[in-house]
């Protein structure tokens, strides 16, 4: 049977019959640890040929080939007993110090869960996986990469799990513009399911010419993820993208480490990320940061962290909500630091619906270079495609829509194909000197930003709509509306009082 979206759907339909699995997030968690073990076993068949004296980190009886591959093998209560009392305790108990591969398995299963209660249904799921997927078949590997992307998109329907998925077009555009080079270290400190990392791997693999290049690539990409389900999804994603030992994807809370403890060895060349926004960190996390930057708003803390982790000359790209752009207080202090230490050269303003249905909050893509103060900021307002008024699950944002931005980025004419210039490699003219203003593009001087209290929420001067109105104007409008409402209430009260008085006479 060929692997296709119908196969994935049929597996999920089997899981829906099981009383132990509740909701999409649990189904995806269950499916992913099974897929991880199958893919790992397929990769081991390859490593047994290519790696001298290869030894599996998984005990022999627990390897997929020895308990799951036989369609007539363990089933029912016997299978459940094996998974619950042998497989999971043993894999969770692997010593992470034994080898890098031991650590990968241990970290994946440390917070993984076996939800299913019906061993016969578990066997049906396993058999579907076996008959549908052979990762060592090149056609399966390619198709499964696309299907895995679809599985990750399904997270958007799984409650808060949607925060782990950034639309592919957005990740691709951000990576294309940062354009990491082989030999550079690339970090996503809130990597979720690994979208930015896999785009980066695809970008770097085009540059690989020798075995030494491939070895360099294997060490180049780093990610950190706080929550267990996206971490499991990310590690599996790394295996799918040819990272043999994805120990550089850690299960940890990046913000839990004191900022002062980072040194030169921790700094990286590129950071590309979409940190969680709108959420609050647990009590005490903010004390890892200097007093003037303390807040429990996750996105703000990540921005401070990124400024610490980038090398001088390093390039950053981050997704941030409108609230960070116009926010005051600690947000202003953070923006001052950003503009003083980095050249925040570009803000791409995305319209509503890009992250639908997870959030309707308007978002922005900020691009900056560490070590140069900001002199001016270019803004580009991403338009909807012709005929569209919003994005949704069935009509998401597409990478082709960013061709306009890519052409404008270096002042070039649109090209159907061709690699973007590396952002750090300035042409003969000053960087971005060929950019021109247009109905979508405008620039603002650092003096204007400073005089405006570091408010980065600058309205498109070419657009008469109120899409990005000045916060002071919005507040004044709100106060006027409240005054009008109160006046209307008072008038109605007077009329009612007069009517009641009249009825007495």
Identify the notable features of this structure and list them briefly.
3 domains, nine-stranded mixed beta sheet, Rossmann fold, 17 helices, 9 strands, 505 residues
Task: Outline the structure in words.
The protein is an alpha/beta fold. The protein has three domains: about 130 residues, N6 adenine-specific DNA methyltransferase, N-terminal domain (Ferritin), CATH 1.20.1260; about 290 residues, Vaccinia Virus protein VP39 (Rossmann fold), CATH 3.40.50.150; about 35 residues. It contains 17 helices and nine strands. The chain has a nine-stranded mixed sheet with strand order 3-2-1-4-5-7-6-8-9. α1 packs antiparallel against α6 and α2 packs parallel to α11. It is globular and about 75 Å long. About 5% of the residues have low confidence.
Secondary-structure blueprint:
Elements: H1 5-16, H2 24-50, H3 64-67, H4 76-92, H5 100-110, H6 119-132, H7 138-154, H8 168-178, E1 186-188, H9 195-205, H10 211-220, E2 221-225, H11 228-240, E3 249-251, E4 268-273, H12 298-309, E5 310-321, H13 322-326, H14 330-341, E6 342-349, E7 363-370, E8 376-381, H15 403-409, E9 441-445, H16 446-451, H17 471-504
Parallel strand pairs: 1-2, 1-4, 2-3, 4-5, 6-8
Antiparallel strand pairs: 5-7, 6-7, 8-9
Helix pairs in contact: 1-6, 2-6, 2-11, 4-6, 5-11, 8-9, 12-14
